[in-house]
Batch of 2 targets.
Target 1
Amino acid sequence: ILDAAKNLKIIGVCSVGLNHIDMDYAKEKGIQIFNAPGLNANAVAELTFSKMLDISRGTFTANYDVKVKHEWNKYKFEGRELRGKTLGGRIGKRGGELGRAFGMTIVAYDPFLKPEDFEKEHATGMSIDELLKVADFVSIHVPLTPETKNLFNAKSISEMKDDAVVLNMSRGGIVNEKDMYEALKAG
């Protein structure tokens, strides 16, 4: 594609991730690359909470039971509330705001922030290992880089609470899908 675009000077993407662009080849051809970190922060935070609510309340299964099976068992879908649960991850400022609005405890990991940065946002900063042990919901919001590839693997999954929910709101390669599949299959 880059070879076909003879006059291409700039590539702009409406996301943080750039793993879908051959950065070295683009640079070699003199093409500048721009991303938009933070531009969609509110949309991603809202989508994350939409998914948390769907999973916690079983809305997809309930919808299927009503539409396809034509049955309703309200006791099957009591679900669990977000209030009182712990949300952890590199969730960003807006994710933390929404979590607090739901009455959640916010724990976060970000290697680029200082402890006082977390405190200003009413969150507790901690290491990934600490976070995995306490979070009921782990929301992943990082770019796919060599350092984050397979960040979530059999070891990290085994350190989580048994009923914890993982929301990968980033690129697919951050979660080792084979390891996640095996963990889900094992219960």
Target 2
Amino acid sequence: MGAFGGSMTFTTFHVRGEVEPGFRDRFLKSIQKEVFRPLTVEDELDETMGWVTIEHPFDVELDYDKVFFNSYLNLALRIDKWRIPTPLFKAWFADAERQHLAKVGKERLSKREKEDLKAVVTATLKRQLIPAMKVIDLSWNLDTGIVRFWNQSARIHEVLEDIFETTFGLTLIRDTPYVVASHLGFDDAQLDKLPELDPTPFHNKGLFLVMDDEPRATVTTEEA
């Protein structure tokens, strides 16, 4: 869900930095270096991320026609993470611990033995599960320098900012009134006044719905 369907909720970023001539070929090579690579059971990492095509989360064959759409650069950020349900892990660990204690003839495991057993149980469960997958669309207007990213999480925004800078050598700045005013050409004196301004609500604060036992609703508003 994102750029081509589903929710239209996105976060806007502005790109800071100079885009040099011939950037498309250079960008494509950088994108291919940061392409998504699946997690494996042998990986020590619990999470992996990278670029995929915006049209299909399993397509990592990123070529020119799949990335560039006229003046837009479109990608999707795929993030896979191992998520083993806690009750499942505890049940498997308890059973493995019982069997190990019976085998070695001990009543309790040492701290080192527990850590080793946790690693064995985790690897066993990974072989029976698939990682949780999150795919987030990104659309960059190369003419305006505006990036739309279909996610609202602050943590995911930080992930995006890191991989975007690694890939393109450019910085993402989150959209704020100050940033918008700066792009519109406000001078320093005008920008200094922005923190002193109060937001203007475009709705009636007194509008609310009152429900009672009767099958009707009453709308009450405060006087302006």
